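> call design_seq(struct)
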Protein backbone atom coordinates (compact mmCIF):
# COMPACT_ATOMS: atom_id res chain seq x y z
CA UNK A 1 0.00 0.00 0.00
CA UNK A 2 2.89 2.39 0.77
CA UNK A 3 4.29 1.84 -2.72
CA UNK A 4 1.08 2.44 -4.65
CA UNK A 5 -0.16 5.33 -2.50
CA UNK A 6 3.12 7.20 -2.86
CA UNK A 7 3.21 6.54 -6.61
CA UNK A 8 -0.27 7.94 -7.30
CA UNK A 9 0.24 10.94 -5.03
CA UNK A 10 3.50 11.77 -6.80
CA UNK A 11 1.56 11.85 -10.06
CA UNK A 12 -0.93 14.28 -8.53
CA UNK A 13 -3.86 11.96 -7.90
CA UNK A 14 -5.98 11.65 -4.76
CA UNK A 15 -5.86 8.20 -3.18
CA UNK A 16 -8.97 6.74 -1.60
CA UNK A 17 -8.62 3.67 0.61
CA UNK A 18 -11.44 1.31 1.44
CA UNK A 19 -12.48 1.44 5.07
CA UNK A 20 -11.45 -1.18 7.59
CA UNK A 21 -13.07 -4.55 7.08
CA UNK A 22 -16.49 -4.87 8.70
CA UNK A 23 -19.21 -7.48 8.69
CA UNK A 24 -21.17 -5.79 5.88
CA UNK A 25 -18.13 -5.75 3.60
CA UNK A 26 -17.50 -9.41 4.33
CA UNK A 27 -21.13 -10.28 3.60
CA UNK A 28 -21.04 -8.30 0.33
CA UNK A 29 -17.94 -10.22 -0.72
CA UNK A 30 -19.48 -13.57 0.19
CA UNK A 31 -22.46 -12.82 -2.07
CA UNK A 32 -20.14 -12.19 -5.03
CA UNK A 33 -17.69 -15.06 -4.51
CA UNK A 34 -18.27 -18.76 -5.06
CA UNK A 35 -18.34 -21.08 -2.07
CA UNK A 36 -14.86 -22.47 -2.74
CA UNK A 37 -13.17 -19.05 -2.51
CA UNK A 38 -11.04 -18.41 0.56
CA UNK A 39 -12.22 -15.93 3.17
CA UNK A 40 -9.49 -13.45 2.20
CA UNK A 41 -10.74 -13.33 -1.40
CA UNK A 42 -14.33 -12.84 -0.22
CA UNK A 43 -13.22 -9.96 1.98
CA UNK A 44 -11.23 -8.47 -0.92
CA UNK A 45 -14.35 -8.39 -3.08
CA UNK A 46 -16.14 -6.66 -0.23
CA UNK A 47 -13.44 -3.96 -0.25
CA UNK A 48 -13.91 -3.47 -3.99
CA UNK A 49 -17.65 -3.05 -3.42
CA UNK A 50 -16.87 -0.45 -0.72
CA UNK A 51 -14.87 1.59 -3.25
CA UNK A 52 -17.21 1.03 -6.20
CA UNK A 53 -18.94 4.43 -6.21
CA UNK A 54 -16.28 6.47 -4.47
CA UNK A 55 -13.57 6.89 -7.10
CA UNK A 56 -12.82 7.10 -10.82
CA UNK A 57 -10.56 4.03 -10.93
CA UNK A 58 -9.95 1.03 -8.69
CA UNK A 59 -6.52 -0.59 -8.72
CA UNK A 60 -6.86 -4.35 -9.19
CA UNK A 61 -3.45 -6.10 -9.28
CA UNK A 62 -2.88 -9.19 -11.38
CA UNK A 63 0.14 -11.05 -10.01
CA UNK A 64 1.42 -14.28 -11.52
CA UNK A 65 5.16 -14.41 -10.94
CA UNK A 66 6.86 -11.66 -8.93
CA UNK A 67 10.12 -13.55 -8.44
CA UNK A 68 12.05 -15.66 -10.92
CA UNK A 69 11.03 -19.36 -10.94
CA UNK A 70 8.28 -18.76 -8.36
CA UNK A 71 4.54 -18.11 -8.47
CA UNK A 72 1.90 -16.66 -6.20
CA UNK A 73 -1.49 -18.02 -5.20
CA UNK A 74 -3.85 -18.50 -8.14
CA UNK A 75 -6.28 -16.00 -6.58
CA UNK A 76 -3.78 -13.25 -7.35
CA UNK A 77 -3.67 -14.47 -10.97
CA UNK A 78 -7.40 -14.05 -11.48
CA UNK A 79 -8.27 -10.95 -9.43
CA UNK A 80 -8.48 -8.64 -12.44
CA UNK A 81 -10.60 -10.99 -14.54
CA UNK A 82 -12.80 -11.90 -11.59
CA UNK A 83 -13.60 -8.31 -10.66
CA UNK A 84 -13.90 -7.26 -14.32
CA UNK A 85 -16.56 -9.92 -14.90
CA UNK A 86 -18.46 -9.33 -11.66
CA UNK A 87 -18.62 -5.53 -11.50
CA UNK A 88 -18.94 -2.62 -13.89
CA UNK A 89 -16.09 -0.39 -12.71
CA UNK A 90 -13.07 1.36 -14.22
CA UNK A 91 -10.10 -0.85 -13.37
CA UNK A 92 -6.43 0.07 -13.25
CA UNK A 93 -4.57 -3.10 -14.15
CA UNK A 94 -1.23 -3.64 -12.44
CA UNK A 95 0.19 -6.77 -14.05
CA UNK A 96 3.42 -8.58 -13.08
CA UNK A 97 4.47 -11.85 -14.67
CA UNK A 98 8.23 -12.38 -14.80
CA UNK A 99 7.76 -15.61 -16.75
CA UNK A 100 6.64 -13.39 -19.65
CA UNK A 101 9.08 -10.54 -18.84
CA UNK A 102 6.29 -8.33 -17.51
CA UNK A 103 8.21 -6.56 -14.74
CA UNK A 104 7.20 -4.29 -11.88
CA UNK A 105 8.64 -1.25 -13.70
CA UNK A 106 6.64 -2.08 -16.82
CA UNK A 107 3.51 -2.45 -14.69
CA UNK A 108 3.97 1.05 -13.28
CA UNK A 109 4.76 2.57 -16.68
CA UNK A 110 1.52 1.07 -18.00
CA UNK A 111 -0.37 2.58 -15.06
CA UNK A 112 1.03 5.99 -15.90
CA UNK A 113 0.13 5.62 -19.57
CA UNK A 114 -3.45 4.67 -18.70
CA UNK A 115 -3.70 7.78 -16.53
CA UNK A 116 -2.30 10.05 -19.27
CA UNK A 117 1.12 10.66 -17.71
CA UNK A 118 4.44 10.74 -19.53
CA UNK A 119 6.99 7.95 -19.18
CA UNK A 120 9.45 10.35 -17.54
CA UNK A 121 7.05 11.58 -14.85
CA UNK A 122 5.79 8.03 -14.29
CA UNK A 123 9.33 6.68 -13.92
CA UNK A 124 10.25 9.42 -11.44
CA UNK A 125 7.12 8.71 -9.39
CA UNK A 126 7.92 4.99 -9.45
CA UNK A 127 11.50 5.51 -8.24
CA UNK A 128 10.35 7.80 -5.43
CA UNK A 129 7.61 5.34 -4.42
CA UNK A 130 10.10 2.46 -4.38
CA UNK A 131 12.46 4.40 -2.14
CA UNK A 132 9.63 5.46 0.17
CA UNK A 133 8.29 1.90 0.50
CA UNK A 134 11.81 0.56 1.10
CA UNK A 135 12.42 3.03 3.94
CA UNK A 136 9.07 2.23 5.53
CA UNK A 137 9.82 -1.50 5.42
CA UNK A 138 13.31 -1.02 6.85
CA UNK A 139 11.88 1.08 9.70
CA UNK A 140 9.44 -1.68 10.58
CA UNK A 141 12.17 -4.33 10.38
CA UNK A 142 14.42 -2.28 12.68
CA UNK A 143 11.65 -1.62 15.20
CA UNK A 144 10.85 -5.32 15.32
CA UNK A 145 14.48 -6.29 15.87
CA UNK A 146 14.67 -3.86 18.77
CA UNK A 147 11.78 -5.63 20.49
CA UNK A 148 13.85 -8.80 20.84
CA UNK A 149 15.37 -7.38 24.04
CA UNK A 150 11.93 -7.11 25.69
CA UNK A 151 11.32 -9.14 28.83
CA UNK A 152 7.66 -9.68 27.88
CA UNK A 153 6.33 -12.93 26.48
CA UNK A 154 7.04 -12.79 22.74
CA UNK A 155 4.77 -14.22 20.04
CA UNK A 156 5.27 -14.30 16.28
CA UNK A 157 2.12 -13.77 14.22
CA UNK A 158 2.85 -15.67 11.01
CA UNK A 159 0.64 -15.17 7.97
CA UNK A 160 0.07 -13.11 4.86
CA UNK A 161 -0.27 -9.33 5.40
CA UNK A 162 -3.85 -9.35 4.11
CA UNK A 163 -4.69 -11.64 7.04
CA UNK A 164 -2.32 -10.18 9.64
CA UNK A 165 -3.68 -6.64 9.35
CA UNK A 166 -7.31 -7.28 8.47
CA UNK A 167 -9.59 -5.82 11.10
CA UNK A 168 -11.74 -8.96 11.37
CA UNK A 169 -8.86 -11.48 11.28
CA UNK A 170 -5.37 -10.51 12.43
CA UNK A 171 -6.32 -7.30 14.20
CA UNK A 172 -8.70 -9.25 16.43
CA UNK A 173 -5.76 -11.41 17.49
CA UNK A 174 -3.50 -8.37 17.92
CA UNK A 175 -5.99 -6.62 20.18
CA UNK A 176 -6.29 -9.69 22.36
CA UNK A 177 -2.53 -10.13 22.64
CA UNK A 178 -2.05 -6.44 23.44
CA UNK A 179 -4.53 -6.73 26.30
CA UNK A 180 -2.49 -9.61 27.65
CA UNK A 181 0.79 -7.63 27.51
CA UNK A 182 2.34 -9.76 24.76
CA UNK A 183 5.20 -8.50 22.60
CA UNK A 184 4.01 -9.12 19.03
CA UNK A 185 6.23 -9.89 16.05
CA UNK A 186 4.98 -10.03 12.45
CA UNK A 187 6.17 -12.41 9.75
CA UNK A 188 6.20 -9.76 7.00
CA UNK A 189 8.83 -7.74 8.89
CA UNK A 190 11.69 -10.12 8.27
CA UNK A 191 14.57 -8.76 6.18
CA UNK A 192 14.16 -9.73 2.53
CA UNK A 193 17.82 -10.77 2.42
CA UNK A 194 17.04 -13.55 4.93
CA UNK A 195 14.03 -15.11 3.18
CA UNK A 196 15.73 -17.51 0.77
CA UNK A 197 18.40 -18.52 3.28
CA UNK A 198 15.92 -19.29 6.05
CA UNK A 199 13.55 -21.15 3.69
CA UNK A 200 16.33 -23.42 2.45
CA UNK A 201 16.81 -24.65 6.01
CA UNK A 202 13.24 -25.99 5.86
CA UNK A 203 12.94 -27.07 2.23
CA UNK A 204 14.56 -26.39 -1.14
CA UNK A 205 11.26 -26.87 -3.00
CA UNK A 206 9.06 -24.00 -1.80
CA UNK A 207 7.39 -22.68 -4.94
CA UNK A 208 5.01 -20.04 -3.58
CA UNK A 209 6.60 -16.59 -3.11
CA UNK A 210 4.31 -15.37 -0.34
CA UNK A 211 4.57 -18.65 1.56
CA UNK A 212 8.36 -18.27 1.60
CA UNK A 213 8.14 -15.05 3.60
CA UNK A 214 5.94 -16.73 6.22
CA UNK A 215 8.10 -19.85 6.46
CA UNK A 216 11.35 -17.88 6.59
CA UNK A 217 10.09 -15.78 9.49
CA UNK A 218 8.97 -18.88 11.41
CA UNK A 219 12.38 -20.50 11.01
CA UNK A 220 14.22 -17.28 11.85
CA UNK A 221 12.20 -16.43 14.96
CA UNK A 222 11.71 -19.94 16.36
CA UNK A 223 14.59 -19.52 18.84
CA UNK A 224 13.90 -15.81 19.47
CA UNK A 225 10.26 -15.82 20.58
CA UNK A 226 8.24 -17.85 23.10
CA UNK A 227 5.48 -18.99 20.75
CA UNK A 228 4.14 -18.81 17.20
CA UNK A 229 0.58 -18.21 15.99
CA UNK A 230 -0.08 -19.09 12.34
CA UNK A 231 -3.03 -17.30 10.73
CA UNK A 232 -4.66 -18.71 7.59
CA UNK A 233 -7.91 -18.17 5.73
CA UNK A 234 -9.77 -21.29 4.62
CA UNK A 235 -9.35 -22.92 2.13
CA UNK A 236 -5.88 -21.66 1.15
CA UNK A 237 -3.97 -24.30 -0.84
CA UNK A 238 -0.43 -22.87 -0.42
CA UNK A 239 -1.03 -22.32 3.32
CA UNK A 240 -2.21 -25.90 3.81
CA UNK A 241 1.11 -27.12 2.39
CA UNK A 242 3.33 -24.66 4.25
CA UNK A 243 1.51 -25.20 7.55
CA UNK A 244 2.13 -28.95 7.27
CA UNK A 245 5.80 -28.26 6.61
CA UNK A 246 6.02 -26.19 9.79
CA UNK A 247 4.35 -28.91 11.86
CA UNK A 248 6.86 -31.51 10.65
CA UNK A 249 9.98 -29.34 10.79
CA UNK A 250 9.58 -26.99 13.78
CA UNK A 251 9.58 -28.92 17.04
CA UNK A 252 11.23 -26.77 19.69
CA UNK A 253 8.58 -24.09 20.22
CA UNK A 254 4.81 -24.05 20.95
CA UNK A 255 2.80 -23.34 17.79
CA UNK A 256 -0.92 -22.82 17.28
CA UNK A 257 -2.67 -22.59 13.90
CA UNK A 258 -5.82 -20.49 13.55
CA UNK A 259 -7.75 -21.05 10.32
CA UNK A 260 -10.49 -18.52 9.61
CA UNK A 261 -13.50 -19.67 7.62
CA UNK A 262 -16.40 -17.55 8.77
CA UNK A 263 -16.37 -14.82 11.39
CA UNK A 264 -19.75 -15.28 13.04
CA UNK A 265 -18.05 -15.63 16.42
CA UNK A 266 -14.49 -15.34 17.71
CA UNK A 267 -15.21 -17.10 21.00
CA UNK A 268 -13.48 -20.31 19.95
CA UNK A 269 -10.33 -18.47 18.90
CA UNK A 270 -10.19 -16.46 22.11
CA UNK A 271 -10.49 -19.61 24.22
CA UNK A 272 -7.64 -21.24 22.30
CA UNK A 273 -5.51 -18.11 22.63
CA UNK A 274 -6.10 -17.95 26.38
CA UNK A 275 -4.92 -21.55 26.72
CA UNK A 276 -1.93 -20.87 24.47
CA UNK A 277 -0.82 -17.88 26.54
CA UNK A 278 -1.18 -19.91 29.74
CA UNK A 279 1.08 -22.61 28.26
CA UNK A 280 3.70 -20.03 27.28
CA UNK A 281 3.58 -18.43 30.74
CA UNK A 282 4.06 -21.78 32.46
CA UNK A 283 6.97 -22.70 30.19
CA UNK A 284 8.58 -19.34 30.81
CA UNK A 285 8.26 -19.75 34.58
CA UNK A 286 9.78 -23.22 34.39
CA UNK A 287 12.67 -21.90 32.32
CA UNK A 288 13.32 -19.05 34.77
CA UNK A 289 13.26 -21.43 37.74
CA UNK A 290 15.71 -23.73 35.98
CA UNK A 291 18.08 -20.85 35.19
CA UNK A 292 17.95 -19.65 38.79
Amino acid sequence: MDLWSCFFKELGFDVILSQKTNKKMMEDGIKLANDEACLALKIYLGHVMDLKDKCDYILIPRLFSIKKNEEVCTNFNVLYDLVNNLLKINILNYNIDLTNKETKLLAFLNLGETLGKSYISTYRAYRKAEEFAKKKREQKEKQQQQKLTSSKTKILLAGHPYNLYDDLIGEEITRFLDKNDIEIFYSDRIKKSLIDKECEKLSKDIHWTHSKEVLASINYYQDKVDGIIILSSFPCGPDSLSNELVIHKIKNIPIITLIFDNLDSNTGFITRLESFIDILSNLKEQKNEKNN
